[in-house]
Each structure stands twice: as C-alpha cells, then as structure tokens.
From TrEMBL:
<protein>
    <submittedName>
        <fullName>Glycosyltransferase family protein</fullName>
    </submittedName>
</protein>
<dbReference type="InterPro" id="IPR051199">
    <property type="entry name" value="LPS_LOS_Heptosyltrfase"/>
</dbReference>
<dbReference type="InterPro" id="IPR011990">
    <property type="entry name" value="TPR-like_helical_dom_sf"/>
</dbReference>
<keyword id="KW-0328">Glycosyltransferase</keyword>
<keyword id="KW-0808">Transferase</keyword>
<feature type="repeat" description="TPR">
    <location>
        <begin position="75"/>
        <end position="108"/>
    </location>
</feature>
<dbReference type="Pfam" id="PF13181">
    <property type="entry name" value="TPR_8"/>
</dbReference>
<keyword id="KW-0802">TPR repeat</keyword>
<dbReference type="InterPro" id="IPR002201">
    <property type="entry name" value="Glyco_trans_9"/>
</dbReference>
<dbReference type="Pfam" id="PF01075">
    <property type="entry name" value="Glyco_transf_9"/>
</dbReference>
<dbReference type="InterPro" id="IPR019734">
    <property type="entry name" value="TPR_rpt"/>
</dbReference>
Length: 524
C-alpha cells in the first residue's frame, strides 16, 4: 500500500497496519489525521487510544469514551475501554465494559481474553472459569484461557484442577513471574514450603502485582553461605516483618554479625528482642541515597558484605514443617514497660471488675486499608469487620475490653457510643514496642488478620485470629484451627465470605466459656 501523501487521505487500515507493525507513533499520526476530517470515526478514536503511552491518561480516557460513543456496537471498542480501566485500577468499570463487549459478541477472542481477567480480578471466579474455558475452545493457544483459569480455580480451592492448569499456563507465557506469585499462595497454604518459597522470590519482579518493591542496595545479596556481616531489611508490612523475624536466630547462627534495617515503629521492639543484633532505622520509601546511608550506618564498625530482604529468609530456613518453632521470640523493652507502669489510670482500668479480676481482652477489628492498590484494598476490606460486630464481645460480664489500635475509637462508626465501655489507648500506641508492652498485660487478644495478630503470636500471648473465608494463605487451608507460625494462636474462619456475624457468635460463646473457667479457677 502506498504511503499516504498530501493528496491521499489516510485510512484506518493504514493506522492499524502501523500499529500491528509496532509503530505506535505512526499509528497515532494517522489516527489524528483521520479524526481531523472525521471527528466521529469510532475506529480512529480506538486507534488513537491504542497509540498512546501510559502517561497520556486523560487523552486516552477521551478517545476510549469517544470510540464507544461513536461505535457502540463494536465489541473491540468496549474491550479497549476495559483494558484502559484496568490500567488505571478501575476494575469495576473494566468489568462493566467487558460485559458490554461479550453481550455484543460472546465469541470475540479479545473480549473473552480481557473478560476472563476482569471477572477473575473482581473475584467472580466461576464466571471467569467459564469464560476461560470458552476461550480455550476457540483459541487454544491463547494464554489468558489458562492463566486466569489457574488463578480462579486456586481461589475456589480446587487445587487438583488448579495445579495442572498452572503447569500448562507457565509453558505458554514468556514471563512466568505473575503465575509463580499467584501459585505461591496455595502452595504455602498446603504447606508445600520447598515449592512455595522459591516462587515467593518473584515478588519483586516489575511484572508481579505484589504490592512490594525492593530497595536499591549497592551490595551483593546474601548467598546462604557464611558471612562476616549481613544486613537484613524489612520490605513489606509490619506483620510480615514480624512473622519473618522468626528466622533471625537461624541467620545469626550462620553469620558473624547481623544488622536489621526496619521502619522506626519496629526498631525499639526488635532491639529489645534481638540483643545480639544491631538495628538501624530505614524509611519505607528509601531510594539509592537512603540505602547508601543505611549501609554506611550499619557498616560503621564492620563493613556490610551482603544484604537480604527479610522475606527471603524463608527460602533459606523454613522449607519443612518441623523447622517452624512456633515459640515466642519478641518482647518489649523495659522503657516501654515503664511507660505503662507510670500510667496509674491504665493499671487501675484493667485491674478490677465488680470486685473480681477481669479477663483483660484486647480487641482489634480493622487492618491497614491499603489505599491506592486495588488488590490490597480488596483484601483489607475482606479482613476488616465493622466495629459493631466486635463490640458484641465487650458486654460480657467479667471482660475488660482494650482497643488495640492507633486510631481513636471515635474515628470508627459507632465508636462514640462505646466511649467508656472500651479502654482507648490509641494516642499512646506510637510504636510496636509500646503495643507489645500492653499485649503482655492482657489475658487474650481477639483480632482480625493484621499486624497485632503477628505481634501477639510472636510474643506467645494468647491470640484468637478472626479470618475471612478467603483468609491469607499463611494461616493454612480454610478450617485450620492452629498456626504453625505461633503456638499461642487459635484460628477462627468465616463459613461464608463476608459473614462476620456467625463467626463472632462462635467467638462470643468461647469467650463466655473462658470467663466462666477463670471464675471457677479463682474459686477453687
């Protein structure tokens, strides 16, 4: 086809050919020329959208909308708009567009490929599997029919089907990182540790939507051999770092010196808990300059010869069930203990109820909302219950409830109504060291899956962890009652996703029984 010249009007076929040849710039030029003559050309709007790079979000939005407005019966227009919404983390909007595309053409390959992804991300797993099966029938070489089926089957706990589907999917993709990351979760739940942890190492790959980013330390990674001085840095949430810190003692046995680089909220706790380890603070958004500063401070006396992300300790030291000790390894500092000793109001508040010693119960009902990340915020919503649900545990005679949260009770819906019934120490929970000093004064912590659950378990404090139906795989398969991470933990699971009421009913019954047992013990 001749190059469009000054006397030849470019066509959408020209722009599409340029796009298929990988020349997005030329595709964009031709699409702009077409739209200058025909502003309502839906296909040209589609091609202009396809030519734009990610930084042109506003312009892409306009062209996506125009393509669907001017070509409403073209399924590809709705597919493109779904893909755009995926890029900007509007997965609910992406799902709506996929539904429109599939309604127009149920056998449209791109609509099926994008649709099975949209349905799976929005946790409509059965529909995602059905679309993936249809896609495999008409396009057996398309990887989306395998990747999304594997992940959806795993979430439905159909592991015997999911595992072979993962194997097929990994043969069809160039970058297996995202699949390894997804497969890791069910392997961990099933305690296939030797298979799970190597897949966990993909979490830093740019293609993997894990929500964590590695830090740019200019230093070799620890190989697993002996080391004069290894620096271990925290690279995930506080609960993750607490959980993975269970292997610090194992690392110390292999290295002459160990330094921990963690957020300042963890520093005091880790200094008290690991007296043979140096602890330095590190900002969560550390770049090259900050990482160089951390290395300089850590190596002031002995040069750091290797570094390791704290989660990577697992692939070195936790590859069998029998190497999870489950015993306590964290404790608060004396300074944190002294802080609460100097608070007579706190001591008096937890001491007596109606002349008898009360059961001092910490409660936590909400976790970090993970704002800005769709997958993280969805998990947070699943893990968080309404304060009203947890409050059904505070009116039990013989229980003194303490809110274990650094957010004021009044900031939660219904919080003002229970002021005075629940001890609120949020203003003083400025570090996990102080939180630990509170936890060791409690008889029990009842909490959703969040950082304080790990803190209590790592201290050996009795903790009842309330899990949603699709609870984090680190706690094992649905229905597990104990944790291989923490001997002091008891697990409670929802029977149905979102049903906290039935779960809290069971917890309340057990809590009433525990109070009665304590009273019997006091009278004996």
């Amino acid at each position: 086809m001749a190059e469009p010249g000054i006397h030849q009007m470019p066509t959408c076929e020209d722009a599409l050919a340029a796009l298929n040849n990988g020349d997005r710039a030329r595709c964009g030029e031709l699409a702009v020329a077409i739209l200058a003559q025909d502003p309502d050309n839906g296909l040209a709007h589609m091609l202009r959208d396809a030519s734009l790079t990610d930084e042109w979000v506003a312009l892409a939005t306009a062209h996506c909308a125009a393509a669907c407005r001017n070509s409403p019966l073209n399924p590809q227009a709705w597919v493109n708009r779904a893909m755009f919404y995926e890029r900007v983390d509007r997965h609910d909007k992406a799902l709506d567009c996929s539904r429109r595309a599939l309604a127009l053409d149920p056998l449209h390959i791109d609509a099926l490929a994008v649709g099975t992804q949209n349905f799976r991300v929005n946790e409509l797993f059965d529909e995602a599997i059905a679309l993936a099966e249809r896609l495999r029938q008409i396009a057996p070489d398309h990887p989306s029919g395998y990747t999304n089926a594997a992940i959806a089957l795993q979430y439905l706990e159909r592991y015997e089907e999911a595992d072979p589907m993962f194997a097929l999917a990994t043969e069809m993709v160039e970058d297996r990182g995202p699949l390894d990351w997804e497969h890791f979760h069910s392997l961990l739940a099933r305690q296939h540790f030797a298979e799970a942890w190597p897949k966990y190492e993909t979490r830093f790959k740019p293609s993997v939507n894990s929500g964590v980013t590695d830090f740019p330390f200019d230093c070799p990674r620890w190989s697993g051999a002996g080391s004069d001085h290894v620096l271990v840095y925290g690279e995930q949430g506080l609960g993750d770092q607490i959980m993975f810190a269970s292997a610090i003692a194992d690392l110390q046995a292999n290295c002459a010196q160990v330094t921990l680089a963690v957020h300042e909220i963890l520093a005091g706790l880790f200094r008290a808990s690991f007296p043979g380890v140096s602890v330095v603070t590190m900002p969560v958004d550390s770049g090259v300059r900050e990482c160089a500063d951390v290395l300089a401070r850590a190596g002031a006396v002995r040069k750091v010869d290797s570094v390791l992300a704290i989660g990577s300790l697992m692939s070195r030291f936790r590859n069998r069930r029998d190497v999870f000790p489950g015993t306590p390894y964290l404790r608060p500092s004396e300074a944190a203990r002294d802080f609460w000793r100097r608070r007579p109001d706190w001591a008096e508040g937890i001491r007596q109820v109606r002349g008898q010693r009360a059961l001092r119960v910490g409660i936590c009902w909400a976790c970090n909302p993970s704002m800005g990340r769709f997958a993280g915020s969805m998990r947070a919503r699943h893990k968080t219950m309404a304060l009203a649900e947890m409050l059904r545990l505070v009116d039990i005679d013989g229980v003194v409830p303490v809110a274990i949260t650094n957010v004021p009770l009044t900031a939660f819906e219904g919080g003002e109504a229970v002021a005075g019934r629940v001890i609120d120490i949020s203003a003083d929970l400025l570090s996990l060291d102080r939180t630990a000093a509170v936890l060791e004064q409690l008889d029990l912590l009842v909490t959703v899956d969040t950082g304080v659950a790990h803190l209590a378990g790592a201290m050996g404090v009795p903790v009842w962890i309330l899990l949603n139906r699709r609870g984090d795989y680190r706690w094992g398969e649905w229905g597990a009652q104990s944790s291989y991470w923490y001997d002091s933990a008891r697990l409670y699971w929802q029977d149905t996703l979102g049903d906290w009421t039935g779960l809290v009913d069971r917890v309340r019954q057990d809590l009433v029984r525990t109070v009665e047992q304590q009273r019997v013990g006091e009278c004996a």
